[in-house]
């Protein structure tokens, strides 16, 4: 009678080889499954290819350090991480914060401070609005009209009144604490104009406003809308580097002042986009005038924009 069984049994070595191949296939497939413990961790972080000199803020313990690797599916921001070599007199620094991940890129000296001048008014108004809401108070129409003039037109007299209302230097200390500002300090005389911020902290302050910490949930949208409508002498810098159709969606607050004591011009730019915030600060000899620094805020931004923006 015919025997239907194989003519020879599989050897132990052959069975072992088959098992190894099957295990290998299973492990490879697990690397492709999201959330698997074997999932590949090789996704690149935004800005880490800054071998040309731009700095990526990745120091342990930073409040803006991303909690996880950014998803490779995130579209790139409009800025490139690179070292700039521009023909600009004096000092300049810049920083960009990715609002989706918290990561900051910037110039090597993005932690160097300069006096903010009117840029800090964005915080002063935010602090006033949040504190009023925390007390269950609604600012009067007249007070909101004053706040509009502080933001849109950079009114100094009204800014001083708001600064008195929020406790002067105590307000700047709250900004440093609430917004995670690591480089900044209160002015020696306690005034708002000589508050010291770095480009990195300017970007952090912008993020603090954008995510609702500064003005609180009730007033954040109102404040951002006012910052999108900055006009006149204060409308310069970062957003001017973008196409006209995009500018109206970018919230800004700038600062400009001639420092006779230092014989310097201090020009500062803050901008808030949908997925990013940016700080640019410049200092140069006082006799070069305001326009030089205002144009250089824009020039620095243009140099960092990706092609096609």
Overview of this protein structure:
This protein has 309 residues and is of the alpha+beta class. The chain has two domains: 12-42; 55-304, Beta-lactamase. 35% of the residues lie in helices and 15% in strands. It contains nine helices and eight strands. The chain has helices at 12-30, 121-134, 141-153, 156-165, 169-178, 199-210, 220-228, 244-247, 289-304, and strands spanning 55-57, 91-98, 104-106, 114-115, 196-197, 251-259, 264-272, 276-285. It has a six-stranded antiparallel beta sheet with strand order 1-3-2-8-7-6. Helix 2 (121-134) packs across helix 4 and helix 3 (141-153) packs across helix 4 (156-165). The radius of gyration is 26 Å and the shape is globular. The termini are far apart. Mean pLDDT is 85; it is low at 1-10, 30-53 and 58-68.
Physical arrangement of strands within the biggest beta sheet: 1-3-2-8-7-6
For the record, what is the CATH homologous superfamily label of the largest domain?
A: DD-peptidase/beta-lactamase superfamily
What is the helix fraction of residues, given as a range? 25-40%
Largest sheet: 6 strands, antiparallel
What number is the mean pLDDT?
85
Radius of gyration, whole Å: 26 Å
Class inferred from helices and paired strands: alpha+beta
Detail the poorly predicted runs.
Answer: 1-10, 30-53, 58-68
């Amino acid at each position: 009678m015919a025997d239907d069984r194989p003519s020879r049994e599989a050897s132990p070595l052959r069975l072992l080889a088959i098992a190894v191949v099957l295990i290998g296939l299973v492990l490879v497939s697990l690397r492709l499954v999201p959330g698997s413990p074997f999932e590949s961790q090789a996704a690149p972080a935004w800005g880490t290819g800054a071998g040309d000199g731009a700095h990526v803020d990745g120091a342990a313990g930073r409040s803006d350090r991303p909690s996880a690797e950014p998803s490779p599916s995130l579209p790139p921001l409009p800025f490139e991480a690179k070292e700039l070599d521009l023909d600009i007199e004096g000092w300049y620094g810049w920083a960009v914060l990715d609002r989706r991940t918290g990561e900051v890129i910037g110039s090597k000296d993005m932690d160097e401070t300069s006096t903010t001048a009117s840029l800090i008014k964005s915080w002063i108004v935010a602090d006033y609005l949040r504190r009023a809401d925390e007390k269950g108070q609604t600012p009067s129409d007249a007070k909101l009209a004053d706040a509009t003039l502080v933001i849109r037109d950079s009114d100094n007299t009204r800014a001083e009144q708001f600064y008195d209302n929020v406790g002067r230097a105590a307000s700047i200390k709250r900004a440093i604490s609430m917004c995670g500002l690591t480089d900044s300090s209160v002015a020696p005389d306690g005034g708002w104009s000589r508050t010291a911020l770095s480009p990195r902290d300017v970007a952090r302050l912008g993020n603090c406003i954008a995510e609702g910490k500064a003005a609180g949930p009730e007033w954040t949208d109102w404040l951002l809308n006012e910052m999108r409508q900055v006009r006149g002498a204060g409308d310069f810098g970062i957003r001017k580097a973008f196409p006209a159709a995009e500018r109206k969606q970018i919230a800004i607050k700038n600062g400009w002042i001639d420092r006779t004591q230092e014989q310097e011009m201090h020009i500062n730019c803050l901008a808030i986009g949908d997925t990013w915030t940016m700080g640019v600060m410049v200092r140069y000899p006082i006799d070069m005038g305001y326009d030089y620094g205002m144009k250089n805020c824009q020039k620095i931004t243009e140099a960092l924009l990706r092609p096609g923006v």
